[in-house]
Specification:
The protein has 360 residues and is mainly beta. Helix content is 13%, strand content 38%. A hairpin with a 4-residue loop joins strand 8 and strand 9.
């Protein structure tokens, strides 16, 4: 179960492999989770110590590993109707975010599955149910009933620095003996890659090795906090992997838990990036931004007074220079609230309030 994607023109593969049960300790009867520096619960193992005092990667891994799980799935394949004996299995990695059994993973790991089996670090296996999944962000939440469980907490990928060390944990290649740990650095931030069904934005690029089976596993900082969810790698460029950042994770996961789906904003425009040649051709008065090629009637953009050839340069306080940036902001902004949008018309700058609607 492998999905292909394009990353900056190169071919990349999203990882999905059959997972072998991990063999680390954890589960009912162990000590309560150790608080993170902010006071939130975090994964704990006996003797792992205060996460604020992690000195080595081994210390951090020992602390977080009990909250990482392997996932085995069975997916529907039309060929099964012709061959009833045919089985199609796949899987990936996930991590626990709630002591009652909520687990975050990738959407492509569990989509169309007829069963989902979760193996905890102590070897116990549970059936899981899907709480919700979102293909556009490649995120999903599933649930198991296993008593009180250790959890991981989220950091902030916006606070990452290029060159900062990070660790990826996942069930790479379905190897026996437990999850694989790889270390590297943050190679770049705010990356975007194209998929067959859309764009993935707000990505952390890392050179920590990400292999088949890592999908849905955590990318961790040295405080043991989740700063990304491992999603894809570029097979043609070794050393380039991508993880979904925490801005996207927090927004999407909250909605999946509360609603089972993600509501996305709708502005009602057709967009193109501005460049010097385009600016000179239409006398736009600005060399950067996103031009409105068309504004549909009876839409939030039309109601706010936006018109063709207006150039958007800022939305909700964020500078806009590319189409992907503006689309990402529209998708992730609150629906039904007044949001500031700054645009250029005839060389003059204007600010309007836009109220997004939910995309149907």
């Amino acid at each position: 179960m492998i999905r292909r994607l394009e990353a900056k023109g190169a071919l990349a593969l999203v990882m999905v492999m059959v997972i072998v049960a991990a063999s680390c300790g954890g589960g009912p009867g162990e000590e309560p989770p150790i608080p993170s520096p902010e006071g939130s619960p975090s994964a704990a193992s006996e003797g792992s110590g205060d996460p604020s005092s992690f000195i080595t990667i081994a210390d951090m891994v020992e602390h977080t590993l009990p909250a990482v799980v392997s996932i085995l799935t069975g997916a529907v394949d039309l060929r099964q109707f012709l061959d009833p004996n045919m089985e199609r299995e796949g899987g990936g990695t996930g991590f626990i975010i709630d002591p009652e059994g909520l687990i975050v993973t990738n959407s492509h790991v569990i989509v169309d599955s007829i069963f989902i089996l979760v193996t905890l670090a102590d070897g116990r296996i549970f059936d899981a149910e899907t709480v919700g999944h979102d293909p556009l962000s490649d995120l999903a939440v599933i649930r198991i009933k296993a008593g009180t469980l250790p959890v991981l907490t989220f950091g902030d990928s916006n606070q990452l620095r290029v060159g900062e060390p990070v660790v990826a944990i996942g069930n790479a290649l379905a190897l026996e003996g437990g999850p694989t740990v790889t270390a590297g650095v943050v190679s770049a931030l705010k990356r975007s890659i194209s998929l067959s069904d859309g764009m993935l934005n707000d990505l952390v690029q890392t050179d920590a090795a990400i292999n088949p089976g890592n999908s849905g596993g955590p990318l961790l900082n040295m405080q043991g906090e989740v700063v990304g969810i491992n999603t894809a790698l570029d097979r043609q460029s070794p050393g380039i992997g991508f993880a979904v950042g925490t801005d996207t994770i927090n927004r999407v996961v909250d909605q999946l838990i509360t609603m089972g789906e993600v509501a996305r904003g709708f502005l009602g425009v057709t967009l193109a990036a501005v460049n010097p040649a385009l600016s000179a051709r239409f006398d736009l008065g600005v060399d950067e931004g996103v031009i409105l090629i068309n504004v549909l009637s009876n839409t939030p953009a039309f109601d706010a007074g936006l018109r063709r050839q207006d150039v958007v340069i800022s939305f909700i306080g964020e500078t806009v220079t590319t189409v992907d940036e503006l689309i990402f902001l529209i998708r992730t902004s609150p629906i039904g609230e007044e949001l500031d949008l700054i645009y250029i018309r005839g060389g003059e700058e204007f600010t309007v309030s836009v109220t997004l609607r939910e995309r149907e």
